[in-house]
Design brief:
Blueprint lengths: L18 H6 L1 E4 L1 E4 L2 E4 L10 E5 L5 E5 L13 E4 L22 H18 L1
Bound molecules: zinc ion (2 copies).
Length: about 120
């Protein structure tokens, strides 16, 4: 299911599907040096004190981003895979927020209560 990559930045570790799909995807470094500063390619952080050096499984001393750590560690040696967003959404026609239904007695009362409360607050 390559849809899982549409518009997303995913590391190999996070990818649970067929690895062949990743080979076709766009690949870029997780962290890039941009005008002398590290920049996380997933969350966009470039504040120097947000990047933490640590010995890494790759054998080098890598730097990782502490901002988007809860989404998984993005390190110097991380590769982000992505595919361009393909989802297209139909534009709603008419008045998409208008509802033409009938409220039950209880819903009707709740609805009136809410309207009254709001009106009292604004007076
Ligand atoms: Zn980050
Ligand atoms: Zn590493």
């Amino acid at each position: 299911m390559e849809q899982g990559l549409y518009g997303r930045e995913i590391t190999r570790k996070e990818w649970k599907e067929d690895g062949a799909i990743l080979e076709k995807a766009d690949q870029r470094a997780g962290l890039l040096k941009v005008s002398g500063k590290w920049q996380c390619q997933r969350c966009g952080t470039d504040e120097a004190d947000r990047f933490v050096p640590a010995p890494c499984a790759c054998g080098k001393d890598c730097v990782y981003c502490s901002v988007c750590l809860n989404m998984g560690k993005i390190k110097t040696c991380s590769v982000l895979y992505s595919l361009p967003e393909q989802n297209t959404f139909d534009c709603p026609i008419g008045s998409p927020l208008q509802w033409n239904g009938t409220l039950s007695t209880e819903q009707n009362r709740a609805s009136k209560d809410i309207v009254e409360t709001v009106q009292q607050k604004t007076l």
